[in-house]
């Protein structure tokens, strides 16, 4: 049984995050992407395959070139996941701030 890739796997790797950043600005051909990294073209091809399987990029053939275009809608899933933890920690830090402010107001010395 083949494991299904998800967007979290795609963004787990710094090279893939850099590729997403590149193609988010403008569609880019595979050779240009490969030239920007100090890894083999085979490694870049694997990164692109993973990004495509996760739905973060699409690839079009234009003549002899393969053009990668960002499909960033799937990043909403990551944003939702991060937001829940941001809210959790904001509440915890606000509670700590209130506690420390109350200590200051009570003139308690430690």
UniProtKB/TrEMBL annotation:
PROSITE patterns: HTH_ARSR_2 (PS50987). SUPFAM superfamilies: Winged helix' DNA-binding domain. GO terms for molecular function: DNA-binding transcription factor activity. InterPro entries: ArsR-like_HTH, HTH_ArsR_DNA-bd_dom, WH-like_DNA-bd_sf, WH_DNA-bd_sf. Pfam families: HTH_20 (PF12840). SMART domains: HTH_ARSR. Residues 1-90 form the HTH arsR-type domain. This is Transcriptional regulator, ArsR family. It comes from Parapedobacter indicus.
């Amino acid at each position: 049984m083949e494991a299904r890739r998800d967007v979290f796997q795609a963004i787990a790797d710094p090279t893939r995050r850099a590729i997403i950043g590149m193609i988010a600005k403008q569609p880019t051909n595979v050779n240009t992407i490969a030239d920007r990294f100090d890894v083999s073209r085979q490694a870049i091809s694997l990164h692109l395959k993973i990004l495509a399987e996760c739905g973060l990029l699409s690839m079009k053939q234009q003549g002899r070139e393969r053009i990668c275009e960002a499909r960033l809608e799937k990043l909403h899933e990551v944003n939702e996941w991060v937001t829940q933890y941001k809210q959790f920690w904001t509440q915890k830090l606000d509670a700590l701030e209130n506690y420390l402010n109350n200590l200051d107001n009570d003139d308690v010395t430690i």
